[in-house]
UniProtKB/TrEMBL annotation:
It comes from the Eukaryota. This is AP-5 complex subunit sigma-1. One of its GO terms (biological process) is endosomal transport. The gene is AP5S1. GO terms for cellular component: AP-type membrane coat adaptor complex; cytosol; late endosome; lysosome.
């Protein structure tokens, strides 16, 4: 099962310090860890929300660190593309997997799969037994749909104002955090559903 999906910045933003990342969108699947862990059982709803927000921020910082390390090691410069060139930007995207130790930030070990498209990072946090190849394909599919239907690379793109569209994509491509094995016919059907929703 996928623990969470997030979209965040991977390049410096003027309002943030170096090494920080701004989470633009996040969605957590499954039960809230704070509800059943002994240490956090006494927390109120607001404290649980803040704890969950901090866990998401930790993932974003770790992914941002992995992206900058990967980009430094490859020596490639990121080339800015404009709206309409999403497929090219996705082909040029950096990607990888980061292992998140138990307790940092989740109670058990998890894997964070990430794709960095220009200044945006897309990440899926999966449980340790999850099929990482299937998760990678799902992440690429989600990223492609987000870039194409929401025009996230265009000027003035507001991810926060389009969160309902991202929720709709997730409900079709990653229902309740479950990775789907897709055959060609089912994938084509999903593509038509997503295109119909995007046209609204």
């Amino acid at each position: 099962m996928v623990r969470c999906f997030l979209i965040h910045t991977v390049c410096p933003v003027s309002a943030l310090g170096s090494g920080e990342s701004r989470v633009l969108y996040s969605r957590v699947f499954g039960p809230d860890e704070a509800a059943w862990s002994d240490r956090d059982r006494g927390l109120g709803p607001e404290e649980r929300r803040l704890l969950q927000k901090e866990k998401i921020s930790v993932v974003a910082r770790q992914v941002r660190s992995a992206v900058s390390l990967s980009r430094e090691a490859s020596g490639r410069l990121t080339v800015e593309t404009v709206s309409g060139e999403e497929a090219l930007a996705l082909q040029e995207a950096d990607g990888g997997v980061a292992r998140l130790r138990a307790g940092d930030p989740f109670s058990e070990e998890t894997s964070a799969l990430w794709l960095a498209v220009q200044s945006l990072g897309f990440a899926l946090v999966c449980e340790p037994h999850e099929n990482l190849l299937l998760a990678e394909g799902t992440l690429q599919n989600l990223t492609r749909h987000c870039l194409e239907t929401l025009h996230l690379l265009g000027p003035g793109s507001e991810v926060l104002l389009r969160s309902h569209r991202i929720d709709a994509l997730l409900s079709r491509l990653l229902p309740h955090g479950q990775l789907l094995f897709l055959n060609h016919r089912f994938a084509h059907s999903l593509e038509k559903d997503v295109a119909a929703y995007a046209a609204k």
